[in-house]
Amino acid sequence: MSSMKGKRLKSSKSYSADRMWKPDIFLHPAEFKPTRGAVNGGASSSPAQHCAYCAGEPVIYNPYSSQHLCEKHFCEGVERRFKLTIRTHKMLSKNDHIGIALSGGKDSSVMLHLFRMLSKSLPLKLTAITIDEGIKGYRPHTLAVAKKEAKRLRVPLIVSSFEKEYGFSLDRAVAVSKKAALPCSFCGVFRRHLLNRAAKKAGVKKLAIGHNLDDMAQTFLMNVFRNDTAHISRMMAFEGAPANRGFVPRIRPLMDIPEKEIALYSVLKGIPIHFQQCPYATTALRQKVRDMLNSFEDSQPGTKIRVAKSALEISRLLPAASAASLRECKECGEPSSSEYCMACRMVEGLREKMGRAKHAGIGKSEKMGKAPKARQRKK
Amino acid sequence: MKITIDGKSATVPERTSIGGLLLKKGISGQVAIVKVNGRARPETYVINEGEKVEIIKVVFGG
Ligand SMILES: [Zn+2]
Ligand SMILES: [Zn+2]
């Protein structure tokens, strides 16, 4: 209930103000708690609602722009912002080969759809890359969606898995680490590691990540909470060190589109999506920050846009993290700031724990202890 | 008035809006897409008697 308290749902011009703010329109008086602004959801008689640009029935009301939008104008708006972000940040070059990090979730599926649409008018080569972390009851479904979507849109798909590359699944890593806060840390490091490797192997020039506006705002605040200014400095559209340092440059063409709008776009376009939460998502700091930002957005529409905008502006002011000190990881060859990259160090630590667990008779059924494919660690 | 929410029959006050329904259910409008009789509708939409409401939660990640 509290999350929507004070929600300011300004209506389109066709509404009369006194009618909009009537608290008893949908709540029993006993349940109504007056707050600043309206809590009645901008209730009005349905027939009065229409799109800000036409007489069409609205599918969304955006409090941050005070606009109702019909399906046509909403979808056009999403597509326009996608193209505008690409243009503004010069994300594409002629005859680019774009790797699309495709999880099968809403953001990456919509991004694949939008890139496919763009490739009809621009000479672009697309390759989808999916990472299978090995999350029981979750990843098989999203993997199936990713495979089906890539096939339907005729985009070649590469699947790289934790099991195949590291010798264990994320589930197994979580089981031995026994720290609730860790799944997303492992997953993030390993996913980035494998995505970069797969992208390079496929000859991809840029790696498109499906981070939306909410993700950008959340990431920025999480970095503030951690005082991680180095990470903030890399929050520009083109993140990462130059390609010749071993990093495939990353682009985020959905970064100006709110999460809810991407989800709605997928529903309206009939893009098959598996609306299921990753079982580890609730353990993440990100989930708390997401709730907090949504609460602010409910009471102060436009908050997420302003936070994401601040993130980009601040990242421009900070000195960019230097790639000069990077070298090749002695084990996998990926760029690293130390002798062994973070992924390889984590793999090593987990493998040791898994070895101990095996001796104790835990999880014998799972394959483990296998060295990464790239090369054996030199001791 | 009687409506259907996610396949289950429910009674809500007359002129309940989608925003109001979400508020009552403790769901932020930021994380929900609502369909009424199979069509996506904004939070300002006022639900009519007998309509079928479907709440799709927008999950994190993707
Ligand atoms: Zn319209
Ligand atoms: Zn390494």
Low-confidence stretches of chain B: none
Number of helices of chain B: 1
Side by side, the strands of the main sheet of chain B go 2-1-5-3-4
Classification by helices and strands of chain B: mainly beta
Globally, the shape of chain B reads globular
CATH fold title of the domain at 88-325 in chain A? Rossmann fold
Highlighted features:
heterodimer, A: 379 residues, alpha/beta, Rossmann fold, five-stranded parallel beta sheet, two-stranded antiparallel sheet, 13 helices, 9 strands, 41% helix, disordered N terminus, B: 62 residues, mainly beta, Ubiquitin-like (UB roll), 5 strands, globular, binds zinc ion
Brief overview:
By secondary structure, chain A is of the alpha/beta class. Chain A contains 13 helices and 9 strands.
Structure description:
The complex is a heterodimer of chains A (379) and B (62). Chain A has 379 residues and is of the alpha/beta class. Chain A has helices at 17-20, 71-88, 106-118, 139-152, 162-166, 170-177, 183-201, 213-225, 229-233, 259-268, 285-299, 303-317, 342-359; strands at 58-62, 67-70, 97-101, 125-132, 157-161, 206-208, 250-251, 327-328, 335-336. A 5-stranded parallel sheet of chain A has the order 5-4-3-6-7, with helices on both faces. In chain A, strands 1-2 form a two-stranded antiparallel ribbon. Chain B is mainly beta. Helix content of chain B is 13%, strand content 35%. Chain B has a 5-stranded mixed sheet with strand order 2-1-5-3-4, with no helix packed on it. Chain B is globular, with a radius of gyration of 11 Å. Chain B starts with a strand and ends in a 5-residue tail after the last strand. The interface between A and B is large, with 59 and 37 residues. Bound molecules: zinc ion (ZN) (2 copies). One zinc ion (ZN) binds at residues 329, 331-332, 334, 340-341, 343-344 of chain A.
